[in-house]
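Long-time lurker. I teach an intro course on protein structure, and each term I like to show students one example going from raw sequence to a predicted 3D structure in token notation. This year I'd like something fresh instead of my usual example. Would anyone be willing to generate the tokens for the chain below so I can use it in lecture? Attribution to the forum is fine with me.
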Amino acid sequence: MRLPHRSSGAPPSRQGGHVDVLTSRTVADEPAFHRSTDRRGRYSGQPEFCRYCRLAAAESKCAPRSPRQRRPVRAGRVVRVRTGRRAVVPGTVVPAPAEDGALGPGDEARLRAMLRQLIQSVKERVTGAPSLQCAKEVLLRLEETDANFHNYELVRYLRQHICSTLGPMIEEEMEKCASEKNQGEEPGYDTVVQCVLARVQESAQYKDMMHSLKGVMTAMVGCMSSGFEEQEEEEEETQRPERQRKAHREKGSRHCTDSCSDSDSSFSQSYKFCPGKLQLIVDQLDPRQPKEVRHEALQMLCSAPPSDILGCENGASLCQRLTAALSDPDPVLSDRILKFYAQAFILLPLHMTNEIYTSLAKYLELYFLSRESHIPTLSAGVDVNNPDVTRLLKKVRLLSEYQKEAPSFWIRHPEKYMEEIVESTLSLLSAEHAPGPLLSPKILDPICFFALVDTKAVWFKKWTHAYYSRTTVLKLLEKKYKSLIIAAVQQCIQYLELCETSKADLILGHSKHCGDKQKTLYYSGQEVQYIYFIHSLCLLGRLLIYTQGRKLFPIKLKNRHDSVSLTDLVVLFIRLIYYSPSHPDTTPDVDSEDYSPASMVTEILQILCDQKECAMECLYSSTVISTLLQPIHNLMKGNEAAPHCSETALIHAAGVLARIASAEEGLALLLYGEDMSPSEEDSLTGAHVTAQFTKRLLEGEVPGLAGSALLPAVQRAFVSLCCQMCGTCEGLQALLPYSLHEAVAQARRKASLPSEGIPTPVLGSHSVSSVSQGSQNIFSMAWEESLLDDLLNFAATPKGLLLLHRAGVINDCVTFMSNQYAENLQVSRQKKVGYGVLVTQVASTAAGAAVLRDSGFVSALVAGLWSSLECGGEDTMVNHPRPTPVEPIDRSCQKSFLALVSLLSSPAGYELLGLQDLPNRAEYSLHELPTCVTDIIDRLIILNSEAKIHSLFNYEQSHIFGLRLLSVMCCDLDLLLLLEAQYQVSRVLLRAQEENISEVSGSHRGFIIDGLSVERNHVLVRMNLIGGPLERTVPPRTLDKGENPYPWPMFSSYPLPHCYRSKATRNPDIKQDADLSQLLSCFMISDKQTEWVENCQRQFCTAMKSKGHVISGGALGELLEKFVLHLTEIPAECYFPSVEYTAADADVRSESLSSVQQLGVRMAISYGKFLNLLNDGAESDLALVLKHCERFLKQQQAPVKSSLFCLQGAYAGHDWFVSSLFLMLSGDGERTLRFLLRFSRLLASALLWLPRLHLSRYLPADTVASGIHPAYFCSAHCTEMLLKTEVPLVYSAFHMSGFAPSQICLQWITQCFWNYLDWIEICHYIATCVFLGPDYQVYICIAIFKHLQQEILQHTQTQDLQVFLKEEALRGFRVSDHFEYMEMLERNYRPALLRDMRAIREQAA
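-- Reply from a regular --
Happy to contribute to a lecture. Here you go:
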């Protein structure tokens, strides 16, 4: 067999030692080599230390040191050069015989004696060579095949001579190589060797030394060749007795030398093993031969590569002889055979190692089944120091190590080889003794010994990892070796029964001994059973992961009537968590290897939770959940959780429940039970039980855990579990009655007290009290940070954010999040909520935006943006130049851009920009960085001076970036009005367009078409035109191909070109809506008020589904007037009390509107005139209506002291709902005001008319102080909750994008879908919510998301979902087309939604 060259990898390191059979660790020197494979799995021939050879060389006293071992070259170390095949090897520096490198006068005599010694040592090998070429090959490979090569005097002398001659030069060359590595990539070991070798060989010193050595050696060989034979005979007679005695002493301890080679052929070692000589070795291995003869035969056998031996015709008979010799009582003989087997496993291909493995496995199977074997019994235990047990464990471990290595290469060979290995292994593991006499001791089975050397069943994990081998393993387990699974289950049951009968104290320390390096190598019967139990536990846990493995259940056990199903097995595992003994003073440590049943079962169950199909079959059942919660039930009743149940077990159980709750199906099971019925009241579900238990833990009302040292750890585990569930809309909705946010906030306040009250330590004081106090401070800080991290889960939902405001911890939570963000640390350990979702939710409220600003989050975000946009990357060495960005927002700035888009919603925009003037300085330093959003607007958007332009390194790219950001901000109409009112953005852009005109010839004006002018034109149209997808045309940002690349007209003054407006037609008159006559007739009030409301709603739905496209806004306005008039006369339908309003027009006209309201009025009037709905004078009428509304609502407001901009007086934005009604009622101010006064009593007004509840006294005081509107914490919250169930792909897309659907919903609702829907659809939206109920506001949002599903998924991939949803209109969406779907949503969700909406006045409870 030809062996390839050794690959040029890194040199192997020294390891080794005899075997600890339990932990598979080594504790003494023991060299061995192992072949390695390249990335394609091919044999590279590189030697490494392997487990097989460590096993075979175990207990050896004089394992030879291989000459091929190398250590890496370190800086400052002398490296010696060896001539011939080895280039550079490290060693010990020895003084040279001469300073100048020349040979001294007495050196020739010494060399002659040394040369004679070398020749005599290799005489036998050379003379036995069949040819001269083979003899030369023996000499050339002498270093590799002779263990004493480096002990020869000649070799040592030559090493000293080379070191003294070339050592200084090599040191100098090594220093040069070390200094050169700073100029490029660091060279590897072989690169340095080749570099130094090439320079040394080219040097004059090397040539002179070689010339001198060659001349001296040639002269000495000539002198010795004449009288060598006579002198040799004389010395032979005098030295023969001494050599015989020496050989006799070394005979028993000599080990075979390494036969690995990096030459091109293995012929030099295998030429002696012709078929005749191999047959002689086979005969000499006969058990009837003397021990010395068999030892000599094995010595000859180990001196050649196994491939050259087993590949011969006598290979099969040789395997039989070797297998038979394994039972020989001589330990040396058995160890040498195992050594040969280990080398065979390393060097041979699978089709040959397969035969060796199966023969060894069959031998062990017969050995265990033989009653004459020396197998220990269960009662006697396993004494590794026993020679018989040691030999048996070596054989078992050799197979075990090969089992772990085989899966890495058997896929490259025919399947039959893998099948033979698998079947022989399963046959061996399934072997068991036939039942003996009644009182006879139980003999240990093979699986017990394999458990000793592979406690966690790594072999089974590797065999089932790939489908290629997993199919074979599971098929054989099902058809022939199911007894192996039955025995594993039986072992787990027996251990549980032992724990339940309170005998677990006997095995309490077994998990400690597993993996203990200092453990005495003796295992009692109980420890062996425990190790076998751990092995069975790991095997069964791995089996449950796969579908075919789960199909093996249910199984029938011996002496048991009932079968064991999958659920029974999982329940068994859970009971092991609670009933198995554990060490009560320790918490689970993820960094240490833990063999305790509780930790191992927890790991298994968490892995099962990660596999959806597996979790559905095994874990998601009421039986499993009730078993997990049973000890918690007991503790809440004041009983003991379970016998021997410790706090550690509760921590493990909380970890399993947290992993279950991380999946949608698992969370639903915990919240609603197995039948998914949230209305079940007679029995609490898992979520309610854990919430009650957690609250009692925090309040110290669990007597069973009082005074426990691990109580804080238990609290932390269950608080994380509950807060994780509260991080979802449905979880928060279910657990809201328990007020967990208050309990956790109170615990956090208590945790912060010790850190504030600790006195300052005195210098030189080392008292115990100060140390313990410092430890307590550290613990309190860690506990406080953990609670803040858990509370941040609430911020992932709109209603949870409101709860954080009410608990008074929103500032601390957001500050903690900002600190984590600054340190690039993850938040929310369990659920992994991203910063994007949290920032989006927090920025959707004014109070949240203020905390983001005060905590430094906004400044850090702005600084990161400026660094990416203007400063570029860090000043490091660039191997490849950065590509020039083509897009204005390239990948380096994309993340910062999206973060700003999510941050700048209208509530956050008013809080961050309200009453903030632009710096507009005369000079800007290049080193001056922006720190707030106002600086971004000043430096990137409103570039109205040369100083601002010159302060930018990338003017065009940065300005386009700012214009893109402005475009998204202007999609929020309230934010657009604020920018116009404070900074006159349109005027700045128009002036910039004016300056971009190239020439003026008569009436012709030519604009320069570039990136900036196209972007400004796009933004100006978007800012100055209101309309839906069919009512306005926004010019694109791209150029067309052809002669006219940009056909859209640019402008630098008003009015806008007409091409951006679609052709508008007057809406059809109500007389044209003949089908509405039946609807109008039903508005006659009836005695049965409930029936009247239902009849009106039914007629409206019929009209919308059949003739929705012909129902005009004017007709709907008339219908709304009559419906609201009659509805307010029904006391049950009125949510707010009646408020008398008697202000006259003359009194109100003198009042003034804010600049934002005035701009909004002009915008609304412009839109109404475009729709042909308004006449001249409508602007003053709308302004009067707004003034009346402001005074009317002010009567119902409560005074609030707050620093928030949005709470300083009247509603900050424009009243888009009033403007919409004004247009629907054709600009009639009196009708509009009369309708609003009546409508204000209905629940729908709270969610459709946002200024209605601004600073309202009908809301709880803490809700008003938070500045969070019910449209956000109620409507948007419910939209998120339904979206997760109804359109799960869209919900997942939002979270993948780091964006929250609640923010865009709030923007749609705030501006009544202006700019997103056409006017007729806006009217349909308002009418639908008034007629059918405010919950239809949620259903319409869900229908929109379902309509946009494909676009949302597409823009999630392109990573611009936020920009798409804010900039793009809702094209193709018609409210009437989705009525059937919304009616289905009403049937499923109306009771829960209306209950939540009606509770906005009692949310404080």
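Some talking points for your students: The mean pLDDT is 81. DSSP finds 67 helices and ten strands in the chain.
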